[in-house]
Amino acid sequence: MVRRDAAGAKIAIFYLFLAIQECIDLAPHWVADAGWGPADDAASAFDELADRGAIVRDLADPLRADAGLRWPCLAPPALPALSEVEGTGVEGSGVEHGRLPRA
Q1: Contact of 86 with 78, CB cutoff 8 Å
Q2: Using DSSP, how many helices (H) and how many strands (E) does the chain show?
Q3: CA atoms of 52 and 91, how far apart (whole Å)
Q4: Is 97 exposed, middle or buried (0-12, 13-18, 19+ CB in 10 A)?
Q5: Mean pLDDT of the chain
Q6: Percent helix, strand and coil across the chain, each rounded to 5?
Q7: pTM of the model
């Protein structure tokens, strides 16, 4: 039997979100470093990588779609503040939704 852990699931979603964000950040640099010229946008960088054989199309297509969903903040509002989730090491630190507290 699998025990449901809502906080753990939300943290897993948060880490998946961060991994996707890193891919979106890395793709244009990869294209430029390879000397293929700048991509038109973050999403088209995945097409360029697939067209050049650097990644497979089955990976490029979902990442291209994910680039269109990029949030302007570090974490979507649906996720709990990390300081509210036990075991993250930031309990009571004031770190909320990936933002540092204002001075």
Answers
A1: no
A2: 3, 0
A3: 45
A4: middle
A5: 75
A6: 50, 0, 50
A7: 0.60
